[in-house]
Amino acid sequence: MNQFNKLCLGILFLTAHNLIAQVVTIDLNQSYQTIDRWENGTFLPAGLEDYIIDDLVDLAVDSLGINRLRLEVRSGSENNANNYQMYIDSIIDYDTWRNLRYATINDNDDPDSIDWSGFHFTELDEKIENILIPIRERLIQNNSDLYINLCYVAFTGQLNGGNGGPVIHQEPEEYAEFIEAIFLHMDSTYGIVPNAVEVILEPNVASFGNGTLVGECLVATGNRLNSIGYTPHFIACSNTNLNGTLNYYPDFTAVPGISSYWNEYSFHAYAGRTEANLIQIADNAAASGVKTSMLEWWANGNTFSYLHDCLKLANISSYEFKGSFGAVGNNWNTGLLQIVDNGNNNYSLDLQRPTKYFRHYFKLIEPGAIRYSASSDSASFDPVVFINPDGNLLLNIDASASGTVQIEGLPPGTYQTIHSLGDGKQEPSVYWSKSPLDTISGVEPLSIEIPSQGIFSIVQRSSISTSVSTLTQEAERFILNTKNNSLTVSGIGSNKIENVTIYTVNGQLVLSESYDATERVDINCDHLGPNIYVVRINEQYSSKIFLY
User: Fold this and answer.
1) CA 300, 295, 145 angle in degrees (round to 5)?
2) What does the alpha-carbon distance between residue 344 and residue 347 come to, in Å, rounded to a whole number?
3) Among 59, 159, 290, 514, which one is least packed by beta carbons within 10 Å?
4) What is the 3-state secondary structure (H, E, C) of 386-400?
């Protein structure tokens, strides 16, 4: 064959290859883990104005889907001095407080008798009041609930000017007393108790013994709390890396009584991020009858693709992307949300760039969703599939290339594709773009075109959900419904619609329409994009809406 013929054959092969659709196959006969929650920490940016909090909560809960909080408590809360209060009162400076915030002084010599003067929960209460309660109340309004993960932190290396030192909670019964004091304090002060105790954050960094000591503290606390009527879940080992989590496992699980209380095998992902380690964590958890979770990797490398891998390989039920809700300004590495505050109630909120990709998981995979088997004949189109509690299917495809994908095994129904294009780090070139609805019988495959790298969600819409919000507490005069990027406004009784205006949360007018005293109007909101908006009717009644 001469060179010209070889060249023509090569071009023909490449052309034919590009025309061949890749196949994703769903098997609903094989199920895996059940999804619990999507976690975030309880940190707020310093100096954040109160007028931003409500919209921040709405964006985190309604638009993103956060429903679990890591409520950290420092070991130094057991101390005869309220060092945090002295810091916020400017009696001591930050460096002094940093040296003291994990320092412990025992309330007394008896771990079975609490001396309340030896405990100070000022910092914990600040987190509860400023962010935990608002998030909890918003979820309750949505007929949902908040899962509270009480996380003990004791970075002992910061003690004594950075020279390190012990804490009294390295004795299991003293640790149990400390956690008991927190449960009693939260219950009596707020009527709230944690759903879970994360035994210790990164025990290797804290120099908090080994897997045996972590296990002994867990069992002592389980015994103590159960004896007074509290039955939380327990989370461990939360090592900084997957290798450490695996290394802790044998000694930790050998502690007598562990199986009575341990519920969740947790890891952080700062190192050891191999497929083999993820699979081994899943195997260890299966052997112990517990769930798995990835609960920290606050770095630029943590993109939706790692969440995707953790779901498939480690069978995680919970995942934490960030610890802080946001940073004022544009530093997306430090928070979940982007907050630009210009003062005087002039501000804007948005999801940070990488958070927008995570939304395809956090928002669309609901608590109680069950993962099923999905495979692909191309590594460029990696699938993970769930059935949500309402019975509708959600398929996420992590795409690293362009191409045509045929999806086989979908049950009969109506489907919609939502996609965001990009590498998971930068601002998506296309964000949350929705296709028209497509109905299939379940016999023929569903074919989708993937133009470039990104995340593609195939959402079953057999019964399209509707978000409803009622205007004003003083009188229910109008009802708002948002569905498929449209807004319907209906008057109640004799109330008629004369004009509708829509603003961003910082007051920018984005839509204004006038009507001839009608009972109902339908407004196309495609041009607005997903976010929080304020709707005013007849220049008198106002309410927020959430476009997804």
Assistant:
1) 120
2) 8
3) 514
4) EECCCCCEEEEEEEC
Domain stop point among 439, 460, 481: 460
Alpha-carbon Rg of the chain, whole angstroms? Answer: 26
Residue showing tokens 């949300």: 337
Contacts (Cβ under 8 Å, ≥6 apart) of 440: 410, 412, 413, 415, 446
Tokens matching residue 527: 């041009």
- Span 388-392, average pLDDT: 92
> CATH code at 434?
2.60.40.1180
**pLDDT at residue number 18:** 43
Give the separation between CA 505 and CA 316, rounded to whole angstroms: 35
Closest to 266 in 3D by CA, of 238, 242, 243, 306: 238
Is the model's pTM score more than 0.90? no
Same domain flag for 257 and 185: yes
- Please calculate the CA angle 466-471-474 and round it to the nearest 5 degrees: 145
User: Are 473 and 512 in a shared domain?
Assistant: yes
Q: Are residues 231 and 320 in the same domain?
A: yes
pLDDT at 470: 36
| Residue 161 shares a structural domain with residue 309 | yes
Write out the E strands in 12-104: 22-34, 37-41, 68-74
For residue 126, report the phi and psi dihedrals to the nearest 5 degrees.
-60, -40
3-class state of residue 234 by DSSP: strand
Give how many domains the chain has, as a whole number: 3
Q: Specify the 3-state DSSP secondary structure of 451.
A: coil
Q: Any alpha helices (H) in 146-268, and if so which ranges?
A: 159-162, 172-190, 203-206, 211-227, 242-253, 258-261
Range of the domain at 503: 467-547
Question: What is the pLDDT confidence band of residue 540, given thresholds at 50, 70 and 90?
Answer: confident
CA distance 487 to 75: 49
The answer to the question of residue 275 being in a domain is: yes
Return the amino acid letter for 365: I
List Cβ neighbours of 287 (8 Å cut-off, separation of 6 or more).
Answer: none
pLDDT tens per residue, range 421-445: 999 999 999 999 999 888 888 778 9
Alpha carbons within 13 A on the beta-carbon side of 370 = 13
Q: Is residue 361 in a domain?
A: no
340 part of a folded domain: no
Distance CA 247, CA 239 (A): 9
Taking phi over 0 as left and psi of -120 to 50 as alpha, with beta for the rest, 281 belongs to alpha
| Contact predicate 135/141, CB 8 Å | no
CA-based angle 400:311:430, to the nearest 5?
Answer: 35
Q: Which tokens belong to 304?
A: 């939706």
